[in-house]
Amino acid sequence: MSWEQSLIRIAEYEVETRQKRLAEVVARREAAELSLLMLDAEIEAEVAFIRTEPLAAFHQSGYMSGCKERRIRILTEIDLITAEESGARDALAEAFESQKKYEHVAAGMARRKAQDAARREAAELDELGVRQASRPRAGGF
C-alpha cells in the first residue's frame, strides 16, 4: 500500500469517527427535545386534571414552579447540545475536506505516474525505431 493510500485510509477513519460523534450529539439533542415535549404534555395533562379536581389546585403553583425549572434546564441543555452539534458538523466538514485533498493528491500522482510511464514507453519506442532505421538492411535495400 502506498503512502497516499495510507493517508486516504486515515482520512476515511477520521471522517467515520466524526460522523459517529455527530450522530451521538444529534441523538442527545433529539432526546432532550423529546424530554421537553414530554414535559409540555405532562403540564397539559396536569392542567386538565386540575380542571376536574379543584382540590388539586392547592399544589398547582409548586408543581408549575418545578416544571418551569425543569423546562429551563432542558432548554439550556438543548442550547448547549446545539452548539456542540454545530462544532461537530464543522469538524466533519473539515475531515471531508482533508479526505478530498488527499484523494485529489493521490489521483494527481497516479496521473503523473501514468504520464511518466507513457513518456518512457514512447522514448523506448523512438529509440527502437532509430536503431532499426540505422541498421543496415540485408539484401541491399
Describe the structure.
Helix 1 packs antiparallel against helix 2. The chain is mainly alpha-helical and 141 residues long. It is rod-shaped. The protein is built from two helices and no strands. The longest helix has 75 residues, at 60-134. Helix content is 89%, strand content 0%.
What Rg, in angstroms, do the CA atoms define? 35 Å
Q: Ranges with pLDDT <50 over ≥5 residues? A: none
Q: What spatial form do the alpha-carbon principal axes imply?
A: rod-shaped
- Total beta-strand segments: 0
**SSE pattern, N- to C-terminal:** HH
Percent helix, as a range, is over 70%
Report the span from N to C terminus: 53 Å
Note the total helix count. Answer: 2
Estimate the mean pLDDT confidence. 89
Strand content: under 5%
Tell me the structural class.
mainly alpha
For the biggest sheet, the summary is: none
Summarize the structure.
The chain is an all-alpha fold.
Sum up the structure in keywords.
141 residues, single chain, mainly alpha, rod-shaped, 89% helix
How is the topology of this model organized?
Layout: H1 3-52, H2 60-134
